[in-house]
Design brief:
The complex is a heterodimer of chains A (112) and B (112). With 112 residues, chain A is mainly beta. Chain A is built from no helices and 11 strands. In chain B, 0% of the residues lie in helices and 57% in strands. In chain B, 32% of the residues are buried. The chains are: A mainly beta (112), B mainly beta (112).
Chain lengths: 112, 112
């Protein structure tokens, strides 16, 4: 079946360092969404990317959709302890009756 | 508060019990979802309702029975569950299918 791969699953960074995570799909996507889940919390919608090569920014977070619409990246500049959590990508394949499929997520920890 | 309210927050039930999870949203969203979140696994889609009609049943065992009486409310009826059904059950809603989910805080279910 179609898979959403997020690599790696865990990452530990020093506060102030940059952080990048990727979401890869085996098939072309119609859109990709990113969510953040704090420890003990629930997923919170961050962004949706639709266009090939699209780049969107939210303060220190930069989201990019690959030209082939199979990959996406999330980059955090100068991480802070508030960035701790698990970042999920959800992808929707093209076509009718499609459903959103989530990756396992990457859990980010930040050392102060 | 996320705009999507789930009750109860925690539930412990025996394998012979019958219980129900409730989800309520007043965001004017047209689609509602049940997801299961287990440790070290991606979010698993269980059911999708669009305009009160069930449009997706993702091969979920019959011991889970959803109900959507109107566009603002969603229930998950549980009976004769197994210990492996212990997980965080998340309700979500979206304006249209597969766009920017708003998740509830979840119900932490333990089956003993």
């Amino acid at each position: 079946g179609q898979q959403v791969m997020q690599i790696p699953q865990y990452q530990h960074v020093q506060e102030g360092e940059d952080f990048t995570t990727y979401c890869n799909s085996s098939t072309t996507l119609s859109n990709i969404q990113w969510y953040k889940q704090r420890p003990g919390g629930h997923p919170v919608f961050l962004i949706q990317l639709v266009k090939s090569g699209e780049v969107k920014k939210q303060k220190r977070l930069t989201f990019q959709f690959g030209e082939a619409k199979k990959n996406s990246s999330l980059h955090i500049t100068a991480t802070q302890t508030t960035d701790v959590g698990t970042y999920f990508c959800g992808r929707e394949p093209a076509g009718a009756n499609s459903k959103l499929t989530f990756g396992k997520g990457i859990t980010l920890s930040v050392r102060p | 508060e996320t705009g999507v309210t789930q009750t109860p927050r925690h539930l412990v039930m025996g394998m012979t019990n019958k219980k129900s999870l409730k989800c309520e949203q007043h965001l004017g969203h047209n689609a509602m979802y049940w997801y299961k979140q287990s440790a070290k696994k991606p979010l698993e889609l269980m059911f999708v309702y669009s305009l009160e009609e069930r449009v997706e049943n993702n091969s979920v065992p019959s011991r889970f029975s959803p109900e959507c009486p109107n566009s603002s409310h969603l229930f998950l009826h549980l009976h004769t569950l197994q210990p492996e059904d212990s997980a965080l059950y998340l309700c979500a809603s979206s304006r249209t299918r597969n766009y920017g989910y708003t998740f509830g805080s979840g119900t932490r279910l333990t089956v003993v």
